[in-house]
């Protein structure tokens, strides 16, 4: 990681002191502060009234016990979190993650990223994130339901369509949102559709929300390529992960005639030179909820499962990390660059380590940070809130057209901001500064709160 501006160093020092041991949160703050040096040089007023210090301190952090009973009658205890980071632009907005790795530092890093991402969408949404160290793997449907109900029993007192609006993230999809919405409705006796997003279509969900993160990512990459007069047509694409973001990124790449060679899960990756069979992938992941290794067993000839291997060893033109934080290291970046990668677009939140990002920049690889490139998911969540508020329901095409327009807007804003701050082509700088400026202006108007 490179040095940050000397005026901002004390801000970082305080974040490190106050949030000891929270490595991912430190990483996310460091990256943003690194970009803000140029802003405070040009606009010292943005540093007045401890504005940057305030942005780095969550407005509220909630940690709670989640007791539930498993199928064998045993009482299980998990820990629940909601970090309500910043509400200058609107109600706190951000997903809920169920994964054994979840801790306060992870939720804080995600909540911090969410502030800038949500600002970039141009929609009226603040930043927050929540989750639990609950591991859904191998749990029955009944156990998932009881866990979601227990989690919402405590969380509901902190939510509201004007207060805090969660959605999904890793380990939380349509099924979990349904159980949580049901419990919220039962406890509050209110059909408050706008309190959660990512809902099913029959009870207030938005068309294209399921697809939005992956589709939006590919729209963003398409815009980046267009600045060089290129398209996805015929490009070799590697997509890590095989969850919601990865699946719909693959779908959109294939619609644009790109060739998706590989995808992965935490045990290894599938290489299918003929192109990933999307219908089969959806059947395994969305219907059967099985592991990716089943793909090769069901597909037969042409496909290989490389257990324990790194998907970044597969030569490609476009790499889309869509699994999880810090999944693409400096070593992986070196391999990708050696194999001629042209574009890297982050579908996950902070999947590239800082040294990987530096290597991409130094080697002329176009790089889109997650907070810009994966903002299509939360942007479509804001469209879902809009539909709920007006008791309306839009068509798929209408919603997707809005998503495409929003992604184009984010791309152009990041590119123009990078130019304005003398770093043409640096989407990291562009995203951090453009997101920050919108939040900073709102915070200045609202006074010291
Ligand atoms: N978890 C998603 C994200 O990282 C979506 C959040 C939302 O829709 O509120 O942006």
Small ligands present: glutamic acid
| CATH overall fold name of the domain at 214-362 | Rossmann fold
The residue fraction in helices comes out at 40-55%
**CATH homologous superfamily designation of the domain at 214-362:** NAD(P)-binding Rossmann-like Domain
Question: Major sheet, described briefly?
Answer: 7 strands, mixed
What is the correct CATH architecture of the domain at 214-362?
A: 3-Layer(aba) Sandwich
Number of helices: 16
Label the overall shape. Answer: globular
The N- to C-terminal Cα distance equals 32 Å
Features:
alpha/beta, Rossmann fold, five-stranded mixed beta sheet, 12 strands, binds glutamic acid
Describe what this molecule looks like in 3D:
This protein is α/β, with parallel strands linked by helices and 449 residues long. Among the domains are: 60-192, Rossmann fold (3-Layer(aba) Sandwich); 214-362, Rossmann fold, CATH 3.40.50.720. 47% of the residues lie in helices and 16% in strands. The strands form two sheets. A seven-stranded mixed sheet has the order 9-8-7-6-10-11-12, sandwiched between helices. The chain has a five-stranded mixed sheet with strand order 1-2-4-3-5. The radius of gyration is 21 Å and the shape is globular. It starts with 8 loop residues before the first helix and ends with a helix. Glutamic acid is lined by residues 93-95, 167, 169, 197, 349, 377-378, 381.
